[in-house]
Amino acid sequence: MQSANTLVKKIVRSSILSFAAQHGMKKDFFPLGRTLSLSLCMKQDNSCSPSEKIDLDGWKKVMKSGLQEVSETVSEQKELSTLAGARDLLEMWRLAGRCVPENITEEQLKAFTECPSKSAQRKYLKFLYLKELYKKNDKKKMIEKRARRAEEQEQDPKLENTKKNSFIYFRANSMDKAYNWRVAQSMIFGQSLVFDMSYEKDMSIREVTNTVRQIVLSESFNRRSADPFHIHFCNLKEDSLYQKEFIKHYREAWSRLLVTATDQCYTEMFPKDKLIYLTADSPKVMKTFDHDKIYIIGSMVDKSIKTGVSLARAKRLGLETAALPLEKYLLWSSGAKNLTLDQMMHILLTLKDTGDWKKALEFVPKRKYISFVNKPVHELKKNLNLINELKLGKRQEQVQRQFAKSYSKNLPQK
Hints:
Elements: H1 2-23, H2 30-44, H3 56-95, H4 106-113, H5 118-155, H6 157-163, H7 166-189, E1 192-196, H8 205-223, E2 230-234, H9 241-250, E3 260-261, H10 266-269, E4 275-278, E5 294-298, H11 309-317, E6 320-322, H12 326-329, E7 330-332, H13 341-353, H14 357-360, E8 369-372, H15 377-392, H16 396-407
Parallel strand pairs: 1-2, 1-5, 2-3, 4-5, 4-6
Antiparallel strand pairs: 7-8
Helix pairs in contact: 1-2, 3-4, 5-6, 8-9, 8-13
């Protein structure tokens, strides 16, 4: 009887171990083999106690846990193998002379593998390559600058002492305190300006980086102005790409920045009748700067120029919209009428201080327009009539009609 039992135990153990070896499970089946062998003994020997019966629920749990562990390990191995293959491919491309960065992080490698097409992968690699190249050039320039300073100090040691004048440090420190004091006062008494940070899904990683750079420039311009805005970063989610880029730029100063950063929407913080969304797609043109209103700027930079995104968001929220009067004061040449965020900040600060559109629109890039509209309408018409009489003759009336259609909207009324 004992020899038969031992033979049955060996057969059961060998079959279980072979099944475990096929599915990658070893440790969890040893107690299972014991319970099965005990169940076979119970069939032959009815004198066994009822506590030694097989536990089917426990057996199911063991099976499921083993399969879950196998699936997790397989997925991790697949991810590691894809990343390793992508890294080898990038190294091969770099040796072949393509624009591939020398050092690439795990996050950047995952972003590369998640690109939807080959062209997107090439563009992303070129972006990383140029970024690394700019860092190398900046580092090289810093080393050369330090070497030049060391040579100048060796030639004339008095020059370094004059540069390290205590008055210069005192002035810089006092100016920073004055700027911070102005911004602190604007947080209590100043006019609010909102940056809408809800466009992360509509941009790529590179576009989000450019957006944050422009916002950092806007914040520095606002901090140095005579009457700064109280800046609000609304819809700024925690651990978002926006926040990560802000922390990269500001580092430890991010927690001390004199702005209001919140994940709330601006409609929850301010009354809707005071909000005006500034967008180039708005049919309504802004005539004057209102000091009682709260202007909203969409924090979005897109090279493809997705028209209507900010206007659609403002309409969904039931907000008033406005566009800058670019066609009224400028003879527009070509290109879209979208401006960068730092240019918008310059224009709004100038309008707030002076109310002069001509001074404010000087911050529009000169490549986008021909000139300002300085002369009244009747003088322009006289000049056009003279040109038509000298050159065009009989086509004078036709050209006048074309001129009236194309430039009547661009010229201010008398």
